[in-house]
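Ligand: S-adenosylmethionine. Inputs:
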Amino acid sequence: MSNRGNEHYTKKAKKEWYLARSAYKLMELDEKYHLLEDVHTAIDIWCAPGSWLQYMASSIPQQEWVQIIWFDLKEVEIQLPWVTTYMQDISDVDGVGHILEQEQIKQVDLIVSDMAPDTIGMADIDAIRCIWLIEKTLWIYDTYLKDWGKFAIKVFMWPGFDELVRDLKTQYGASNIMTFKPKSCRQKSKETYIVKRG
Ligand SMILES: C[S@@+](CC[C@H](N)C(=O)[O-])C[C@H]1O[C@@H](n2cnc3c(N)ncnc32)[C@H](O)[C@@H]1O
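Predicted complex:
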């Protein structure tokens, strides 16, 4: 995406009261894969400042019973009755497991993961850390996602990406796993999303 394109989504987010332009990525993913259809329980990891929550809140019918558990290192300012947010390092497996147990989470319909780890500008090290962090979360999908559940995981097309896609295809079935780069992603960015359909 050109700078003009970037500016377009940033301005649009401000105008439409979204906390971040990331909202449009989830919107595009949802339009393409109907991610939010029939969702009652969801886990959102890497969730601050909260634009995905804003989009979910406006897309899931209010009469539906929903429970969304959120994790981020930063505090999430936005609050909704059916959302519980935790300031929690997602790589702390015991900490995350304890919270999900406490919340009595059994199985969820959707897991979304919009990661952006701190990078140091050294491509190899950043790539390894990024894949390491994603791998640190895969147990959540194994343990909590319903068989027909959906997910969207932001990843970077750095070393380790192909292997991750291959492993997810092996686990969830090749025809259920897709990759998709929303138009609202920065053109130069290596980010893309791995999606599992329901
Ligand atoms: C791209 S932002 C998420 C944007 C969010 N989806 C939204 O729409 O507002 C990525 C987030 O990952 C969080 N993060 C980075 N490392 C983390 C970690 N180890 N555990 C939990 N959250 C982390 C950052 O604090 C940041 O808020």
